[in-house]
């Protein structure tokens, strides 16, 4: 496959996944803000969400302070935010358009219909009660795209690069979400607010029910961290995502007659560490330090994939 | 040919009634309520928007991805008429290829004095870089779009030849798909010559001109300037239909005069490039050094015979508007035949006699830029204001070689759905001629229609639309076949 095609497939999947993740984050933050408003720290929710989205420096160059309106605008509409929902769909579609022939019709239509809807989005689509509907719609569109890719693509290289993009982005997102809230996981008294926040964190990765199914017990900081980092059953856990990344890279290598490089080594190492890691050790190292390290290594892996397959 | 404006010939309605090939269409139009036509029009638009069949217009404001309006009433050409046309097209393209081989080779036609030397050798379309290069099979214009117009039952004219990178064939294919989806019963009541083999025939044509060393399964790619090109959709569509890669300049590299594409598994050798990039931008080392979309070293690889380019560089000399008047002479000179297709009479403003005539008759003529395309920079005398004519008068005097003029033809019309109902609108036809080891033409082509009342400009960039073009296997409708099929489909279609 053309290197440029691989690049576009990888990024269209990453941007699509990112749009869905921003929508998840926004949904949780607005829910939390509604609760925190009574408890007096609404701003913290929006500030945390900005940090998790990784674009807070750009935000503070344009806006005074994180409020519901400013953060929603930044994360949905603002063209200066390359990780905003509209920007992500725009970038995903631009990449899709550049590799139309590598996509199935279902994938193209999922992206193109989303884009045709978004480009005509009225500004009040995110106001008040509309916001939840809009965010739900974004998640549906991302799910539709992922389903279309999963159900219709031939299982050859184009599919593998799409899957790599989705999984790498998802791993990055889960690590960021958890890291922003790492203080919730510090040892100490568990108050009512913590509990609601924990629920919110789980909800953002669609894992509140999953937690109950796996642990059948009340929420605890340690288990939530374990679920989101180490449990292979949770499809958005770091362990699950990095296993997919590594397996996908290995599959590409097999199809190319065993060609491997630095990206295969990093991916394999991450997979093994997550497979055999223990939550006790992670907490002993420090959750924040551990997650920051994961975010860095995920970025290094992305760069290594790029160096090996794209810009060689 | 008369220079006054006669009533246009309508391809459906002759003076003595409806022409036979359109009988079924005429019945269908009478039987179909206006609301149904509007609904089908709307469905067609959704279909095209959904598939993403757009052409890109950047830098004009508004939506950069536009739909070319599609008219749901087909344009019909009976097989007998088509046979005459296609015979003429084959002949013309053979002559154009012979001309290209000659002007980049022995230049016999210049030595014989049939075409002025300077007109060819000093033309911007003439690429000195091509001198002495003989592409495989002597084919230069592998894909030719020959624009035809009609003024009467038997009066067809070639309006212009396109020997560089003619576009529009994806619309020919998608228009047929749209018609089959929107009006399966109407289609089933006609015996329409299929067009869907075009991509396969294009691929065979491209493979046939591969360098000999490439073997039986040469690697073919389509080279596009990228997503901002107005025909980008078509590039992707054709590549997809052929099962070849769409590459941009940056995806290709040349080492030791061999072209490779960059793939995830390393460099892969390329044998044939169907390029949709203009000559000037192909290779910054050979042509424009500022080209960002080209491939450095490509022409050296081409000269070494390591890669085929379709169309060959330098084809612009054959479709130049100042060379056009000489095409009938090429047919006689190279083939020893009388031309089967007529040219539109053309005055070259650089010739003093022609110029005098043109300047005296600006109100009757169409004046075009010799290098122009897309319907830009054109004067349609009878429709122009006095001020516009005066402006062209001055422009022609300032740069006479830049302009040609032709009579204002009463282009034929075909019924078209417009705001006020169904009305005749002027059309042209662009058949696509493939030249590899042999010449192939898919029956029909792209019919473009001027949607504005009275307008003669069919270009999509100027508000033109398209129609599906049906070459009917026999004259008149065939009511026999497909009874069971129409039964099963009737519930959902209602047409």
What's this model, at a glance?
The complex is a heterodimer of chains A (312) and B (495). With 312 residues, chain A is an all-alpha fold.
Main beta sheet strand tally, sense and closure of chain A: none
Looking across the biggest beta sheet of chain B, what order are the strands in? 5-25-24-21-20
The helix content of chain A is over 70%
**Sequence stretches where pLDDT stays below 50 over 5 or more residues of chain B:** 1-6, 476-495
Based on CA inertia axes, which overall geometry of chain A fits? Answer: globular
DSSP strand tally of chain B: 25
Report the total helices of chain B: 15
Order of helices and strands of chain A: HHHHHHHHHHHHHHH
Distance between termini of chain A?
14 Å
Percent range of helical residues of chain B: 25-40%
Main structural class of chain A? mainly alpha
Which geometry of chain B do the CA atoms define? globular
Radius of gyration of chain B: 23 Å
Mean pLDDT of chain A: 91
- Straight-line distance between termini of chain B: 42 Å
**CATH class division of the domain at 212-306 in chain B:** Alpha Beta
Total helical segments of chain A: 15
Largest interface: A-B, 25 and 24 residues
Percent of residues of chain B in beta strands?
Answer: 15-25%
Cα-atom radius of gyration of chain A = 19 Å
**Which residues of chain A sit in consecutive blocks of at least 5 with pLDDT less than 50?**
none
């Amino acid at each position: 496959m053309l290197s440029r095609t691989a690049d576009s497939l990888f990024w269209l999947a990453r941007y699509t996944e990112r749009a869905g993740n921003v929508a998840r984050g926004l949904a949780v933050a607005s829910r939390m803000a509604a609760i925190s408003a009574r408890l007096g720290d609404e701003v913290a929710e929006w500030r945390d969400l900005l940090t998790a989205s990784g674009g807070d420096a750009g935000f503070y160059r344009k806006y005074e302070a994180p409020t519901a309106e400013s953060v929603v605008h930044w994360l949905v509409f603002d063209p200066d935010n390359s990780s905003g929902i509209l920007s992500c769909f725009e970038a995903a579609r631009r990449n899709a358009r550049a590799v139309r022939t590598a996509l199935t019709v279902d994938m193209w239509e999922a992206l193109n219909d989303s884009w045709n809807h978004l480009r005509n989005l009225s500004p009040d689509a995110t106001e008040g009660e509309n916001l939840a509907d809009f965010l739900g719609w974004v998640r549906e569109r991302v799910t539709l795209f992922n389903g279309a890719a999963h159900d219709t693509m031939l299982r050859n290289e184009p599919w593998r690069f799409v899957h790599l993009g989705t999984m790498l982005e998802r791993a990055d997102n889960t690590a960021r979400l958890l890291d922003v809230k790492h203080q919730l996981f510090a040892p100490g008294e568990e108050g009512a607010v913590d509990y609601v926040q924990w629920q919110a964190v789980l909800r953002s990765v669609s894992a509140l029910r999953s937690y109950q199914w796996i642990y059948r017990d009340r929420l605890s900081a340690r288990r939530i961290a374990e679920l989101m980092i180490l449990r292979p059953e949770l499809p958005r856990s770091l362990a699950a995502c990095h296993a997919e990344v590594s397996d996908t890279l290995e599959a590409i290598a097999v199809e190319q007659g065993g060609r491997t490089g630095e990206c295969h080594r990093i991916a394999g190492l991450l997979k093994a560490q997550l497979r055999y890691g223990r939550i006790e050790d992670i907490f002993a190292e420090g959750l924040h330090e551990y997650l920051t390290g994961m975010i860095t290594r995920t970025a290094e892996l992305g760069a290594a994939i790029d160096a090996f397959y794209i810009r060689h | 040919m008369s220079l006054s404006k006669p009533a246009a010939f309508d391809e459906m309605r002759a003076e003595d009634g409806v022409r036979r090939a359109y009988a079924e269409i005429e019945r269908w139009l009478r039987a179909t309520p206006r609301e149904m036509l509007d609904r089908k029009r709307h469905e067609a638009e959704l279909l095209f928007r959904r598939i993403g069949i757009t052409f890109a217009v950047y830098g004009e404001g508004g939506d950069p991805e536009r739909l070319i309006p599609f008219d749901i009433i087909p344009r019909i050409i009976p097989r007998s008429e088509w046979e005459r046309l296609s015979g003429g097209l084959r002949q013309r393209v053979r002559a154009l290829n012979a001309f290209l081989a000659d002007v980049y080779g022995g230049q016999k036609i210049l030595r014989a004095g049939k075409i002025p030397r300077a007109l060819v050798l000093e033309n911007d379309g003439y690429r000195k870089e091509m001198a002495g290069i003989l592409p495989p099979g002597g084919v230069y214009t592998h894909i030719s779009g020959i624009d035809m117009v009609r003024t009467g039952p038997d009066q067809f004219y070639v309006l212009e030849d396109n020997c560089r990178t003619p576009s529009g064939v994806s619309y020919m294919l998608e228009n047929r798909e749209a018609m089959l989806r929107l009006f399966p019963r109407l289609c089933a009541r006609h015996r329409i010559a299929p067009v869907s083999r075009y991509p396969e025939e294009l691929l065979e044509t491209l493979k046939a001109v591969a360098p000999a060393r490439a073997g039986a399964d040469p690697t073919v790619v389509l080279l596009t300037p990228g997503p901002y090109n107005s025909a980008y959709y078509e590039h992707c569509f054709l590549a997809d239909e052929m099962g070849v890669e769409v590459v941009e300049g940056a995806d290709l590299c040349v080492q030791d005069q061999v072209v490779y594409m960059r793939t995830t598994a390393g460099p892969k050798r390329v044998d044939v490039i169907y390029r949709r990039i203009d000559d000037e931008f192909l290779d910054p080392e050979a042509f424009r050094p500022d080209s960002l979309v080209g491939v450095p070293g490509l022409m050296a690889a081409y000269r070494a015979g390591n890669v085929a380019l379709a169309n060959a560089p330098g084809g612009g000399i054959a479709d130049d508007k100042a060379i056009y008047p000489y095409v009938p002479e090429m047919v006689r000179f190279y083939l020893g035949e009388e031309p089967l297709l007529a040219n539109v009479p053309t005055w070259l403003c650089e010739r003093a006699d022609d110029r005098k005539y043109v300047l005296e008759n600006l109100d009757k003529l169409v004046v075009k830029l010799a290098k122009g395309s897309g319907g830009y920079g054109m004067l349609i005398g009878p429709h122009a204001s006095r001020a516009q004519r005066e402006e062209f008068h001055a422009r022609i005097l300032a740069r006479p070689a830049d302009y040609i003029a032709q009579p204002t033809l009463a282009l034929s019309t075909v019924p078209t759905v417009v705001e006020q109902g169904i009305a005749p609108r002027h059309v042209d036809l662009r058949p696509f001629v493939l030249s590899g080891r042999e010449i192939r033409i898919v029956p029909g082509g792209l019919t473009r229609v001027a949607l504005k009342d009275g307008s003669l400009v069919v270009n999509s960039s100027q508000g033109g639309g398209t129609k599906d073009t049906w070459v009917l296997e026999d004259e008149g409708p065939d009511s026999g076949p497909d009874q069971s099929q129409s039964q099963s489909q009737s519930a959902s279609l209602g047409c």
